[in-house]
Amino acid sequence: MTAQDFLLECIADSWLDGNGEGLSADTPLLEFNIISSAEIFDLVHVIQAEFGIVIPLQDVRPDNFRSVAAIADLIDRFRGK
Prior knowledge:
The chain has helices spanning 3-15, 39-51, 68-79. By secondary structure, it is mostly helical.
């Protein structure tokens, strides 16, 4: 499972009551109020546990969490890909 696949499933399950219809890698998560800025921290904890990485606090900012694609890029950066 790719980081994007994991994120799409996780976001659909956790914030969209399991309905990921219309959710894509480029969907603006914050702009469409799919996740709030406070919920980013919940997502960070899930990502860290799933991928065994640490996302430094300075990287927990809205531009890194604007879409699934942006979050997957962040994960890949810390996984060393």
